[in-house]
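Thread: "does anyone have the structure for this chain?"

Original post by V.I.:
We have the sequence but no experimental structure in hand. Need at least a predicted one for the grant figures.
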Amino acid sequence: MAIAERSLVTNAAQKESLPLQGTANDYDPLLKLIHDSRFCLLGEATHGTHEFYRERAEITKRLITEKDYMAVAVEADWPDAFRVNRYVRGLGDDRTADEALSGFKRFPTWMWRNTLVLDFVEWLREYNSSLPIGAPRVGFYGLDLYSLYTSIEAVLTYLNKVDPAAAKRALYRYSCLEHFGDDTQAYGYAANFGLTESCEREVVEQLVELRRRAAEYANRDGRVAQDEFFFAEQNARLVLNAEKYYRTMFRGRVESWNLRDRHMAETLEALVNHLERQGHHPKVAVWEHNSHLGDARATYMADYGEVNVGQLVRERYGPEAVLIGFTTYTGTVTAASEWDGIAERKRVRPALEESYEAAFHDVDMPRFLLPLRDTGAGSIAFSDPRLERAIGVIYLPKTERQSHYFETRLSDQFDAVLHFDETKALTPLERQPIWETGEPPETYPTGV
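Reply from O.Q.:
Generated one for you, tokens below.
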């Protein structure tokens, strides 16, 4: 971004933005923008920033208490999140939020096993317990599809309780996947390159049979039985999509990315339909990364044929969906240096000069809300492609430009953006010495 263009963005942001001052009324304008929308998609520029998690939780609390939102759907595995769902609704055997979150064992555990999610889950349980008897409880649900083997186990557990004969048939079908233990990528590689038969037919058959018995299973014991069947059905559908996902991983990014985001959007719609069948008009808060929730059509992703949850929800629900992005200029972040690596507290380099984040840094507000929907002339400054930063579970500062930046038209990507100029790392529940110590300065050991 040229200096003049950066100034244009800074000046527009200075004019259009509303300061966040840490007061109870900070998000009144955002709640007014959301109005009666059925979906509020709350993003994050990293998977490890304290302020993003904290503010999403605060906004979501207001959506629940003031706008009657009744579900929180997150970028997490379905069975692990459903355990939390049982806890916040006063069901299940877990006695504390920490126990309820203990199902999150797969990398990166800090995404959901952190101090802020712990507090939010405890708040949800307390809020639900304060509601009158018979009032609908707020639920907590996962949208992702990485839990292939955990979901298989969940389907088998369910069927063993309601139909042991069906459980034996399911066990036989799913045994096709047992040859690779829990190594999903090894299965995907072997099946994709013809080194083993794919298990696609078996997992399809299992989902079809489960759905064929839906009325029988789901109506045995009222609403609880319906919820339990829905949980099992979504696990069976997840197994089907996960099996396909791990096979497509080796065919290129676009196909696997689209399969994953379509699965998450379908799970969201299935959740809405389930709640509607119970007589509700559900409103849902969705927590995912900006790259999933910002409209893909406004980014480089569209050039490669990629879609994402934000685009799919907008296409399906139009103005009933509000998309909110989060950005930061510098600070620290919890991230790993490689896949399956340990959580580190890393320094976030100051944003590149040609980025939106750098232009926002020049605004005379350390924290602000930037509305982008129907803002008139001000949004013109945010309509041309410019760089935006994205840090996932891995952060590689040495290849920052190639690894963590993409071009986007901000006013088409989001309906509003929350910018926090300097942020700090999310605190995991399990902190190893490397996280506690933090990353040494770039000048270490000379200090120059």
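V.I.: this helps a lot. The chain has three domains: 1-69+284-448, 78-143, 145-282.
O.Q.: and Residues 145-282 form one domain.
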